[in-house]
Amino acid sequence: MNIQLNSAAACLLLAAALTSCDNTDTEAPTVCTEAGAMNSVLADEVEAEAGDHIDLEDLFCDNEGLSQVRWDIHNGEGHAHEDEDEDEDGHEHGLTLHSGTDWAVLETANLEGTEAEAELHVDVPLTARGIWHLIVDVVDAAGNTATYNTDLHVENTHIPEFALTTVNGESPDSWHGEPMWAAGTTVEIVGTVADSDGILSAELELIDEATEEDVWSFVIDAAGSTDGTPVSFTAEVPVPTTAGEYHFEMKATCNANVSMETGFHVEVE
Predict the structure, then answer these.
(1) Tally of CB atoms within 10 A around 114
(2) Domain limits for position 69
(3) Most CB atoms within 10 A, among 43, 115, 199, 247?
């Protein structure tokens, strides 16, 4: 009797083990969109125009069954991902001037089957300009997750645009991460600000991030700016004697009364 019971128990345990093995799925889902798709997370970069919309489209696959896709779009200022153009210290190359950085998108959609298409309709605000990160997480029915990312490059012809030629004699395109300024020195900034309607007003400011106080400001002379001709400026910035984190801000309003602001972080040491 005991032998029969033990045999029966062994069979049940073996059946349970086999069933458990059959239900174990450790293979992550994938994005199986055809190569070359422009509005896919697999693209090197997705392009968009401010004030317009873009439809992000991808095909997702899994060997057992899909569950969900999550989209995360956030501004790229101060954020880096492993596959971006970085130096050996993990710093991005060059300066990108962002505007409308508070715009972000977080959306999810349920998926079914082993292959499913999903689309995200995105309205790009008129205030946005620069690089946004597009992060896509795809999850299968077993909970396995795969993450993909690319950049969303937003062009904007509706708001004024600053361009920096040199900062202390150096092109910002050669920067690796945020610049460092020596306390108590002077930094020369040369650049332009332009808009198709002409520039009504423009100003540069240096803000202490610890106190949020304006420690320096400079009004750009935009008199006579009535068309798209860039307004050139040269500013001598007195660097504070107190070390810390600062933000160099650039603000402008065009003759159509459309305003914008942009800038970059500075470390004073």
Answers:
(1) 15
(2) 30-155
(3) 199
Task: Answer yes or no: is 24 within a domain.
Answer: no
Pair 118, 218 in one domain: no
> What are the structure tokens assigned to 206, written together?
């240096």
Residue 35's identity, in one-letter code, is A
Q: What is the pLDDT of residues 3-62, one digit of tens each?
A: 443 554 444 444 444 444 455 889 999 999 999 999 999 999 999 999 999 999 999 999
Specify the CATH number for the domain of residue 170.
Answer: 2.60.40.650
Instruction: Specify the pTM.
Output: 0.81
Distances (CA, A) of 231 to 10, 198, 251: 85, 9, 13
Asked if 192 and 135 sit in the same domain, the reply is no
- Per the DSSP assignment, residues forming a β-bridge with 189 are 167, 235
244 found inside a domain: yes
